[in-house]
Amino acid sequence: MSTANPTGPARKAIGDVAPQLADLTDGVLFGQVWEDAALSKRDRSLATCAALIATGKTEQLSFHFPFALQNGVTREELVAMTTHLAFYAGWPSAMSAVAKLRELPVA
Fold this sequence. Notes:
The chain is mainly alpha-helical. The protein contains six helices and no strands. The termini are far apart.
């Protein structure tokens, strides 16, 4: 069923444990969804980071915050988004995200 690159990032990271999940991640999520021109990668990164913070999935921010920086989101925008979300998604979620913001390089 694989349409993914057999040496893609997810295949390398989790393919030994969950090969189908790796294929879906490389092929569908990052191969199709993230490449859809309806939203820029920058906008997708902001939406993804906001969703992860709002749902308390902050462990995933170790990947998605640096990825957002690569996609043109600034560190200052990530900090502002996190502060904004404290009021809508809850203080604990924002505070957990701050721990991941600390991992980012300061310009």
